[in-house]
Design a protein that fits this description.
single chain; about 90 residues; about 0% helix; elongated
């Protein structure tokens, strides 16, 4: 509507008003401000990769895999190639 102020958006439940200590924050999952989420790391997750790990933080899951390539023309050295991708419907 033209000429009318928009209604203010609701604040998230973890919002701390200016001037209030951060200890008043209440996160949706009930954690305190300095409390970390539970982290679970499963090493050697993929059987055919030179190295791999599955890392889980609540509803977030990350799969890391490592492939080692050492070219014959550079004995004793090599490089690490990193690739990042997200599956459909990932946020």
């Amino acid at each position: 509507m033209i000429g009318q102020a928009a209604a203010p958006l609701p604040l998230p439940s973890c919002y701390t008003p200016p001037g209030e200590p951060a200890t008043t924050i209440v996160r949706p999952d009930g954690r305190q401000p300095a409390e970390l989420r539970l982290v679970r790391i499963t090493a050697k997750y993929l059987p055919h990769a030179e190295g791999s790990a599955l890392i889980e933080l609540d509803n977030t899951t990350v799969l890391c895999a490592l492939t080692v390539e050492m070219p014959a023309f550079l004995p004793g050295s090599g490089w690490l190639t990193v690739e990042y991708g997200m599956l459909p419907r990932s946020t």
